[in-house]
């Protein structure tokens, strides 16, 4: 949610800086994720000053240029060559001095330098409107009023006020703060000052010629519906101040009517909707549900099938005009030809709006607020505020009384809280007078008080305050978490957890990978169902925020691919990433959660150097890292097999006791396409739960370094293509358990010179006895045993 600093100050009279307000907001629970300076126009007219043209004469070397002498308030006149036809002596103009960066309406910014133009020195630029981003006019330079002060800043002359935009990470429970008024409440309560609400006392009904009848059939889904008619409006472009105010919070201007309703929404937190009154058939608005399957075209020109559970705003014929609290329709929307409007301000049931918005995949500023809970007391006040604003920017007269269907007023929440509970949960005894001041500042009424506690009435817009612990939270966040002293003693019980702890193993792996040039990533466990290979086993979110976050992830792969895509789109193509996380599934009603450890490599193996060529990362770069992890953790008795996985184009898997420890390889094209990736990505997926179980059982036994030399013997053999190195290694280790230290493949050949279905392997065998030097006779005996077993079990043909 975006909040404007200048807008906020209209509610709270304070001289606090934007940075100080940012700390206050974060301290009260409205976390400021970013604070950004916003200028009404690019560059904010920095470096531009008001100048006076003292002289103007023809350029000696160019018919279309003139040489001017300009007083820009610097003490010395500037000589500026100007090509505008309307420049003349005696004018007040806008001057861009040397060193200023100019931001034109069209084109790239450019810097003003001291130069010579056709032989004459030029020390600046006399500006046209489009050259500094103030408009599109390029007919000539801007000629200012005679009262413009020479040497003053252009941004002061044009009354450009810089603003600051807060990006607030609004939590779902704080629907009350989804506006400038709501945000200001917290600031005012923290600063112990009053709050200035807009004055609507000027609102008056001019006549009743445009009265619209309102009928609410579904009072449960629409507890309150208010409306008023305004006739004789002129739909046009919004005034500059309104467009700039909305632009600061990222809202694009549409027209003055729509902009006015958007303004009030972000001002007070009350969504509004303006109908073309002449499109409301029979002069009647009916709030009801339409039959299942009714077709309705929304403002985005999409025809949607309605559910019987969707609350609709209909005309007198029962034809839908708007999805209540979510989105308007094409037929009744405000157009440039609209002259009369009916303005709606309602309080809709949050659950009803949330289900409808989710059903149609619509997320709007209005539904965002209605889904979380708006203020039922605000509808009429917001109508008056919007009507006055519309009259200001679009003219017109209020042509009806305010209709207000509110048969069952929403009562405040009754909450009792004791001082003992407050002191216990906060950990500090706050003076009772200060507690009452905080609650009053938050518009929580104290209706009863005793020596033990308070009886309170909480306004309905505070949907998050229904229990005494909620009251305690409100007191604490305004009092200030930082004002709670840290005790001098900390009591804690001893933790008898298994060793090594998960964090220790995780840190060990993190250090290893980071030392090898990897970066750690942290991804959301929520992801899109399109990534799920088996939706039946996916853990679905009952109330997803969006279609991209509707299931729990079943694999670590796609969160890593998304991170790679994000980086590659920003020209960061060479990546080594790792992530610790959890994956989730459900089978036969049983939910499963397991810890995984993923590694990703893509792009070049190493950065570009003058003395070596860039090599793309390969499967073997990943294998080296995987083997390094296995060795670092001292994981033994590992069996190697080909990885059979739809997500991998090719790869290997390491097993221990027939349980998969890790699978790794090149990501399949189908998976890459889902993340919009084209370049090859190598991925490893470790079972971190299994790693912890193995490491906890590992016993480290020290052995002296052998005093006797190791011996290497090589064998070249012809085998079937289906035979893997892992199988050969396993056969060899089984045949000679004591003296065989290592087996490695150092040459592989497959080609048309070999029999069909065959390949050639060259293996090396490292033999060593820790008690004596091996003799040739002993070595030959071992090699004969290896040859015999390889021929028998793998069908190998030893090449002499």
What does this structure look like?
The chain is of the alpha+beta class. Helices cover 26% and strands 28% of the residues. Strands 28-31-32-36-35-34-33 form a seven-stranded mixed beta sheet, sandwiched between helices. It has a five-stranded antiparallel beta sheet with strand order 5-4-3-6-11. It has a five-stranded mixed beta sheet with strand order 13-16-19-20-21. Helix 6 (256-268) runs antiparallel to helix 9, helix 7 (350-360) crosses helix 8 (365-372) and helix 18 (725-735) packs across helix 19. The longest helix is centred in the last third of the chain and has 19 residues, at 776-794. It is globular and about 115 Å long. The mean pLDDT is 91.
In short:
The protein has 800 residues and is α+β, with helices and mostly antiparallel strands. Helix content is 26%, strand content 28%. Strand 38 and strand 39 form a beta hairpin.
């Amino acid at each position: 949610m975006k909040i404007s600093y200048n807008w906020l100050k209209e509610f709270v009279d304070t001289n606090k800086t934007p940075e100080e307000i940012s700390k206050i907001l974060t301290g009260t629970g409205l976390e400021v994720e970013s604070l950004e300076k916003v200028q009404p126009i690019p560059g904010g007219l920095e470096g531009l000053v008001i100048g006076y043209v003292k002289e103007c004469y023809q350029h000696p070397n160019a018919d279309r240029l003139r040489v001017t002498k300009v007083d820009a308030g610097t003490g010395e006149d500037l000589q500026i060559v100007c090509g505008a036809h309307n420049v003349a002596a005696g004018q007040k103009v806008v001057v861009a001095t040397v060193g200023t960066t100019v931001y034109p309406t069209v084109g790239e910014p450019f810097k003003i330098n001291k130069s010579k133009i056709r032989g004459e020195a030029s020390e600046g630029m006399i500006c046209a409107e489009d050259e500094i981003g103030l408009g599109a006019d390029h007919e000539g330079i801007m000629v200012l009023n005679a009262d413009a002060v020479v040497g003053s800043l252009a941004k002061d002359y044009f009354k450009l006020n810089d603003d600051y935009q807060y990006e607030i990470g609004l939590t779902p429970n704080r629907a009350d703060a989804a506006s400038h008024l709501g945000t200001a409440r917290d600031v005012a309560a923290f600063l112990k000052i009053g709050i200035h609400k807009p004055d609507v006392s000027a609102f008056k009904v001019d006549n009743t010629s445009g009265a619209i009848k309102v009928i609410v059939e579904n009072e449960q889904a629409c507890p309150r519906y208010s409306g008023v008619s305004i006739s004789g409006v002129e739909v046009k472009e919004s005034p500059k101040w309104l467009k700039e105010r909305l632009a600061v919070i990222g809202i694009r201007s549409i027209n003055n009517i729509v902009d006015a309703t958007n303004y009030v929404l972000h001002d007070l937190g009350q969504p509004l909707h303006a109908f073309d009154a002449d499109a409301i058939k029979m002069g009647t608005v009916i709030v009801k549900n339409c039959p299942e399957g009714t077709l309705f075209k929304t403002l985005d020109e999409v025809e949607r099938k309605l559910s019987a559970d969707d609350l609709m705003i209909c005309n007198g014929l029962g034809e839908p005009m708007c999805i209540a609290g979510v989105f308007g329709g094409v037929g009744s929307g405000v157009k440039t030809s609209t002259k009369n409007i009916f303005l709606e301000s309602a309080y809709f049931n949050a659950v009803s709006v949330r289900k409808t918005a989710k059903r149609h995949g619509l997320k709007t500023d209005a539904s965002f607020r209605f889904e979380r809970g708006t203020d039922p007391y605000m509808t009429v006040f917001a109508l008056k505020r919007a009507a006055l604003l519309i009259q200001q920017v679009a003219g017109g007269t209020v042509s009806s009384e305010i209709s207000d269907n509110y048969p069952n007023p929403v009562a405040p929440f009754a909450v009792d809280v004791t001082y003992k509970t407050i002191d216990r949960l906060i950990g500090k005894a706050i003076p009772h007078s200060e507690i009452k001041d905080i609650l009053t500042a938050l518009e929580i009424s104290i209706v009863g008080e005793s020596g033990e506690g308070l009886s309170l009435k909480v306004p309905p817009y505070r949907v998050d305050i229904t229990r005494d612990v909620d009251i305690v939270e409100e007191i604490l966040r305004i009092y200030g978490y930082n004002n709670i002293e840290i005790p001098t003693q900390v009591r804690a019980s001893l933790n008898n957890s298994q060793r090594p702890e998960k964090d220790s193993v995780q840190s060990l792996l993190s250090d290893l990978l980071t030392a090898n040039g990897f970066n750690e990533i942290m991804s959301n466990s929520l992801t899109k169902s399109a990534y799920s290979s088996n939706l039946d086993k996916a853990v679905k979110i009952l109330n997803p925020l969006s279609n991209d976050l509707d299931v729990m992830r079943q694999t670590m792969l796609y969160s890593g691919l998304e991170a790679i895509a994000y980086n590659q789109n920003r020209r960061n193509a060479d990546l080594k990433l790792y992530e610790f996380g959890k994956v989730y599934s459900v089978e036969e009603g049983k939910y499963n959660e397991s810890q995984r450890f993923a590694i990703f490599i893509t792009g070049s193996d190493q950065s570009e150097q003058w003395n070596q060529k860039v090599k793309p990362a390969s499967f073997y770069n990943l294998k080296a890292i995987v083997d390094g992890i296995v060795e670092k953790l001292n994981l033994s008795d590992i069996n190697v097999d080909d990885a059979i996985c739809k997500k991998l184009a090719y790869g290997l898997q390491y097993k221990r006791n027939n349980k998969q420890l890790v699978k790794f390889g090149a990501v399949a094209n189908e998976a890459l396409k889902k993340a919009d990736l084209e370049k090859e990505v190598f991925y490893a997926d470790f079972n971190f739960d299994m790693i912890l179980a193995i490491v906890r059982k590992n016993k480290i036994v020290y052995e002296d370094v052998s005093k006797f030399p190791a011996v290497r013997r090589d064998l070249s053999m012809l085998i079937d293509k289906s035979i893997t190195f892992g199988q050969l290694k396993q056969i060899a280790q089984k045949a000679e358990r004591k003296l065989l230290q290592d087996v490695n493949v150092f040459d592989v050949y497959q080609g048309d010179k070999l029999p069909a279905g065959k390949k050639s392997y060259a293996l090396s065998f490292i033999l060593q006895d820790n008690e004596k030097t091996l003799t040739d006779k002993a070595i030959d005996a071992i090699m004969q045993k290896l040859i015999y077993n390889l021929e028998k079990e793998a069908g190998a043909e030893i090449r002499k």
